[in-house]
Amino acid sequence: MALKLTDLKTSAHNDWCPGCGDFGILNAVQMALAEMNVDPSRTAVVSGVGCSSKVPHFIKTYGVHTLHGRTLPFAIGIKLANPNLEVVAEGGDGDGLGIGAGHFVNAGRRNVDMLYIVHDNEVYGLTKGQASPTLGLGMKTKSLPTPNINQSINPLLLAIACGYTWVARGYSYDVRHLKDLIIKGVRHRGFAFLDILQPCPTYNDIQTKEYWAGEDLAETMGKSQPRTYKLEENGYDGVVHNNDHAEIQQKVQQAVLKSFEFGDHTPLGVFYQNEFVPTYEERLAGRSPSYKLTPPADQEIARPDGTPLSNIKKLLDELRVV
Ligand code: SF4
Fold it and tell me: Of 38, 46, 146, 285, which shows the fewest CB atoms inside 10 Å?
């Protein structure tokens, strides 16, 4: 039976501020899951801590609202224990690129088959708008007493450098385009990273909805000029079509160059995609052929009377220091 959008909505109270970009992202995720007709009982949404990390409460699938910065270890653990699940990790830029930065880097090396969505609003919205790792040097949002003295992380550049095999950017108020990107990210074979421009109208008065719509440019240009554009409408092809070193190198280089475009001309869409890299699940199956047939989540761990099936005494004896 086809899944309806309402099937994926919960009745949990949502306390996001009016106009928050998180609403558009939540809608896009629900629309994407409905369009793909995922089985909610075979889908898990995992988050860390922050405004955006409340999403598992609002999406009617399995979900875990975990610890600050630990979105990826939880999500990767769930996916590796049960590779038949569709796993979507979701959280803020502070959660993923601040305290969770080490996990972000190492997730790129592994290429687990899942999607990681970052709501990128450049501030820590849940704790009153402190500068997050993606806020530019010298920027002063209304929540900061003085301009930011740290340089910002470029999430797309970092993801490409870390080995993510699908790297894209969306915009929270372009919900249909975002929905299409989420579908592509879920269907990608490997680790997909989606950075989403997400205005926080409460604490970030610089990257607002009006800023991205370029309303302030009307004075000089005669009309509003959106600051975002779509890569696919401008002849850009980030997909690696052949497992060829020269093509991979060329596609990585163009994605790196594109990742530096930000501000008045900010690209949206797929910067890079390479499905020729083996997933972590495939690497595990190569080492242990039974992994795919009986992954950990499908294994019996106890007899009917509750006694454990495994005996780890030998292992513990080997680890004993005498
Ligand atoms: Fe959204 Fe910002 Fe309000 Fe958090 S503080 S709910 S990110 S508008």
Answer: 146
